[in-house]
């Protein structure tokens, strides 16, 4: 899954693709580079981000989706709002990527049910402005698993077919670096739930911190690609269905090497 953020303020590509033509060209380039799906978002979810209104979000994404869908590019809509998801599906998107797992907007389940499309339920505890305060866990793997299963129950209770559901542990969303590493280490717990799992570590802050220089300055966002590739290979080897990344070409190359090597799926269980 390749990322196009049509936003002025996303942490990695914010401001680069606010112009429709630039966003469409970037989506086309990601598809040529091997993306199976291009994920279009019109609202930044970086920690601390302020919200935009639904009309602004819709206006940002719909023209980009219309053009890419007309060119045959499979599109997911990265939104927590039912109205934006519905407009995006109408414009040609075929997957809903909801970082709130249906929690932010109770109407989302109905949109997903009626469309019958894949719906990514990501683990989430609150909007970006407040989410760092919510990064408190006794056992992050068990709690994220349990909270994701509640999201699944709500979705199925609203009439969504379980076969529509994709799960995502939500790295960086109400999680600190150690939480992200624990979730990475135990991705098998999520794979074992039997739903496709999406893993989205691309260029995130915890990778920047891991690669900090001698003065403790985090590695800049656009110099985290090799670390991102390592996370993608680990995730796919652990059974992930997909990885959501900014640089599709390098990810496709790394996964081609993994496949050609015939490496078995990793067992990430500790025992
Ligand atoms: N992260 C971001 C945005 N959308 N969607 C899913 N399913 N999982 C994620 O972890 C996720 C997401 C924030 O990162 P970005 O600014 O690179 O889009």
Report on this model:
This protein has 271 residues and is an alpha/beta fold. The protein has a single domain, classed as TIM Barrel, CATH 3.20.20.20. The chain contains 10 helices and 8 strands. It has a 6-stranded parallel sheet. Strands 7-8 form a two-stranded parallel sheet. Helix 1 (20-32) links the parallel strand 1 (2-5) and strand 2. Helix 1 crosses helix 2 and helix 3 (82-91) runs parallel beside helix 4. The longest helix is centred in the middle third of the chain and has 18 residues, at 140-157. The radius of gyration is 17 Å and the shape is globular. The protein starts with a strand and ends in an 11-residue tail after the last helix. InterPro entries: DHP_synth-like, DHP_synth_dom, Dihydropteroate_synth-like_sf, Pterin-binding_dom. Residues 1-256 form the Pterin-binding domain. It is an enzyme of class 2 (transferase). Belongs to the DHPS family.
Tally the beta strands: 8
Helix content: 40-55%
- What is the strand content? 5-15%
> Rg from C-alpha positions?
17 Å
Biggest sheet details: 6 strands, parallel
CATH class: Alpha Beta
What is the CATH-assigned architecture? Alpha-Beta Barrel
Count of helical stretches: 10
The computed structural class is alpha/beta
How many domains comprise the coordinates? 1
The spatial strand order of the largest sheet comes to: 1-2-3-4-5-6
List low-pLDDT spans. none
Distance between the termini: 32 Å
Query: What is bound: which ligands?
Result: pterin-6-yl-methyl-monophosphate
